[in-house]
Specification:
The complex is a heterodimer of chains A (152) and B (263). Chain A has 152 residues and is mainly alpha-helical. Chain A has one domain. Chain A has a two-stranded antiparallel ribbon. In chain A, strand 1 and strand 2 form a beta hairpin. In chain A, helix 3 runs antiparallel to helix 4. The radius of gyration of chain A is 21 Å and the shape is elongated. Chain B has 263 residues and is an alpha+beta fold. Chain B has 2 domains: 119 residues, Immunoglobulins (Immunoglobulin-like), CATH 2.60.40.10; 106 residues, Immunoglobulin-like, CATH 2.60.40. Chain B is built from 4 helices and 16 strands. The longest helix of chain B is centred in the N-terminal third of the chain and has 30 residues. The termini of chain B are far apart. The model of chain B has no long low-confidence stretch (mean pLDDT 85). The chains are: A mainly alpha (152), B alpha+beta (263). The interface between A and B is medium-sized, with 27 and 27 residues. Strand 2 of chain A pairs antiparallel with strand 8 of chain B, so a sheet runs across the interface.
Chain lengths: 152, 263
């Protein structure tokens, strides 16, 4: 009975720690976004709809991050991490297309070739994706090892 | 397996931070770039070429050098026929430095007149297409392009020869005085010679005369030219109508004949 009470106490402690961690991380990410946006606002104004798409990206990214933190120490954490990495790659590919930005303002037409930035960003997000897969494999491996150890 | 995963995580984060720092610094550098155009200078050459020199001042106070700066201008007429094309290339604009670039555009009056004499006598608009590009921060190629119209002022705007006035010059010759006027709307002074041939109704050359003109840009010319015609009854009757052939010979271009009927 005492052990069960102790266990449930630990669970509450663990869950509240995860919630706190998720909240702090979400606030930090939002703060970075909040501070960076005014600095890059003149740049965003040149590309119509870019600001809205960034907002959607930040919301989805934070939600996936919170879900990942809340489901920490379970296999779902890696599902959400993988989903986040995939979402990041998909967003990059959809928003940047071939990496060449074209925008027009009055009589002027501006073309920025971001192919190199885009390539590096996709490669880095691929690394992130590979890391989450490795983490998931490692988690399953450790879990299987622990279970087989218990059985012995 | 934990160590390689952690190492992979740290490496990815470091590269992300570097990439983001580069992009943020690049964005800030754009803010610290200053482009300014100076007053364009026009200089006519005797071979029928007009050189337009456009100074471009670039103050690169950003964090990165600008490489492969290129500026290209294409002048074309209303029908889209290319009149002039000019390119300027600067390999490097170092950061923290002010650079002055002179973009020279050569307009050939001769080729302009080949497209039509309206450029000589009527104000017009030339289409200008400008493309400027550079390799920003040595990694991000940026290009900006625009189109606008360039007002072309005619050097002999509203050129007209008035009604001939007949008078007696001597017992055998009559004097024909013809008023001549035009406005110089061009961005260069018109200095040269105008030669006019007077033909009667039968197409015979009665006389020719020439006059020197020196009309600064934006000024009007109002003068007259005089001809001596024989006082024969036949020629007097045919000289009441006919045409003038006008030849223009200036420092910048030659043109003619411009046929103007009279009578």
């Amino acid at each position: 009975m005492v052990e069960q009470q102790k266990k449930s106490k630990n669970l509450v402690k663990d869950v509240s720690f995860r919630v706190a961690k998720a909240t702090v991380k979400a606030i930090l990410v939002y703060l970075i976004y909040f501070l960076l946006v005014p600095m890059l606002a003149p740049l965003f104004e040149l590309i119509p709809g870019f600001m809205e798409s960034i907002e959607v990206f930040v919301i989805v990214y934070i939600v996936l991050m919170i879900l990942g933190d809340l489901t920490a120490k379970t296999v779902f954490q890696y599902f959400f991490s993988t989903a986040r990495a995939l979402f990041f790659m998909a967003y990059l590919m959809l928003s940047m297309g071939d990496g060449v930005f074209n925008t027009s303002y009055e009589n002027f037409s501006l073309t920025v070739n971001l192919t190199l930035f885009y390539t590096v960003a996709v490669l880095l997000s691929l690394l992130g994706f590979a890391r989450t897969i490795l983490q998931a494999i490692n988690f399953m491996h450790e879990k299987a090892e622990a279970e087989s150890g218990l059985q012995l | 397996m934990n160590v390689p995963i952690r190492a992979l995580g740290i490496a990815t984060s470091v590269f992300w931070v570097l990439l983001m720092a580069f992009m943020v610094l690049a964005a800030f550098s754009v803010k610290d770039l200053n482009f300014d155009f100076g007053e364009p200078q026009f200089s006519p050459a005797p071979d029928g070429q007009l050189t337009l020199s456009l100074p471009l001042y670039i103050d690169n106070r950003g964090y990165y050098s600008l490489k492969e700066f290129h500026l290209s201008t294409v002048f074309s007429d209303a029908e889209g026929a290319e009149i002039s094309r000019a390119n300027t290339y600067v390999p490097v604009i170092p950061h923290g430095e002010k650079t002055t670039i002179i973009h020279n555009v050569t307009l050939s009056i001769v080729s302009l007149l080949e497209n039509g004499e309206q450029y000589l006598f009527n104000d017009n608009n030339l289409n200008v297409s400008v493309t400027a590009g550079l390799n920003f921060a040595e990694l991000l190629p940026v290009e900006i392009s625009t189109n606008f119209t360039f007002p072309w002022g005619a050097p002999f705007y509203n050129f007209a020869l008035g009604t001939p006035a007949y008078g007696r010059f001597s017992s055998t010759q009559g004097a024909v005085t013809v008023p001549m006027s035009f406005e110089n709307h061009a961005f260069f002074d018109v200095a040269g010679n105008i030669r006019i041939e007077l033909y009667d109704g039968a197409g015979s050359l009665l006389d020719e005369t020439q006059t020197l003109v020196d009309v600064p840009q934006g000024s009007a010319y109002d003068g007259s030219v005089a001809f001596n015609v024989p006082l024969e009854s036949a020629s007097l009757s045919t000289a009441r109508s006919g045409h003038f052939d006008v030849y223009f010979d200036t420092r910048v271009f030659e043109y003619g004949p411009l046929v103007i009927p009279y009578g």
